[in-house]
């Protein structure tokens, strides 16, 4: 067995990565990213930007976000403190899993990472206080290419573990378009991203 365990998910091209964790009475050590080990595991992206967010309380909901066109991003997500339910939606027209979503618990204790390919809308809700959320991107952020879908979308019917009226979210996320509105001008085509 290699240094990484790669788990295939229901969603096309999405992977859960479990790095080896070495622990004893002092705590633990893990190599969170090694370009060589990821490439040996078949995960070959040129990650060029690292991002971090802090959510101070449980119930913070961020998303669903994506970057359009040439600014589209593959993300490698992990949580350093706390826990989240990370939710992604396949928005690549023509994909075998188009319009489907899945949620994954990513936490400081399970050490899991989530590979989110280009063409997925992404969001998360914090399950604990003090969530430090980190992710690598294979493309730089571009404000003009920023887009999203409402986390409350009735057609997607995401099973968030929180009432919408109790979620702490940004004004921007509270006003995102519906999935049907997004479909009228969907910039993502499976196999062309």
From TrEMBL:
Q: What class of enzyme is it?
A: isomerase
Q: Which reaction does it catalyse?
A: dTDP-4-dehydro-6-deoxy-alpha-D-glucose = dTDP-4-dehydro-beta-L-rhamnose
* Keywords, comma-separated and alphabetical: Isomerase
InterPro entries in alphabetical order: RmlC-like (IPR000888), RmlC-like_jellyroll (IPR014710), RmlC_Cupin_sf (IPR011051)
**Domain of life of the organism in this record?**
Bacteria
Q: Where is the signal peptide?
A: none
Spell out the protein name for this chain.
Answer: dTDP-4-dehydrorhamnose 3,5-epimerase
Query: What is the protein's species of origin?
Result: Lactiplantibacillus pentosus
Task: State the PANTHER family in the record.
Answer: DTDP-6-DEOXY-D-GLUCOSE-3,5 EPIMERASE, THYMIDINE DIPHOSPHO-4-KETO-RHAMNOSE 3,5-EPIMERASE
Q: Which NCBIfam families match?
A: rmlC (TIGR01221)
The family assignment reads: Belongs to the dTDP-4-dehydrorhamnose 3,5-epimerase family.
What lineage, starting at the top, does this entry show?
Bacteria, Bacillati, Bacillota, Bacilli, Lactobacillales
Q: Which Gene3D superfamilies does the UniProt entry name for this protein?
A: Jelly Rolls (2.60.120.10)
| UniProt subunit comment | Homodimer.
What task does this protein carry out?
Catalyzes the epimerization of the C3' and C5'positions of dTDP-6-deoxy-D-xylo-4-hexulose, forming dTDP-6-deoxy-L-lyxo-4-hexulose.
Its annotated pathway reads: Carbohydrate biosynthesis; dTDP-L-rhamnose biosynthesis
């Amino acid at each position: 067995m290699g240094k990484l365990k790669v788990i295939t998910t229901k969603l096309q091209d999405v992977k859960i990565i479990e790095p080896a964790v070495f622990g004893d009475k002092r705590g633990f050590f893990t190599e969170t990213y090694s370009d060589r080990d990821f490439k040996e595991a078949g995960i070959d992206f040129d990650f060029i930007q690292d991002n971090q967010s802090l959510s101070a309380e449980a119930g913070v909901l961020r998303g669903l976000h994506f970057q359009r066109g040439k600014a589209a991003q593959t993300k490698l997500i992990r949580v350093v403190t706390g826990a989240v339910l990370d939710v992604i939606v396949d928005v690549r027209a023509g994909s075998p899993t188009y319009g489907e979503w899945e949620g994954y618990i990513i936490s400081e204790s399970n050490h899991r990472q989530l590979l989110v390919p280009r063409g997925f809308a992404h969001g998360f809700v914090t399950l604990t206080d003090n969530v430090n959320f980190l992710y690598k991107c294979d493309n730089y952020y571009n404000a003009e290419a920023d887009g999203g879908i409402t986390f409350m979308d009735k057609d997607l019917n995401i099973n968030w573990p929180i009432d919408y009226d109790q979620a702490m979210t940004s004004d921007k996320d509270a006003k995102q378009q519906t999935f049907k509105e997004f479909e009228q001008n969907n910039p993502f085509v499976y196999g062309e991203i």
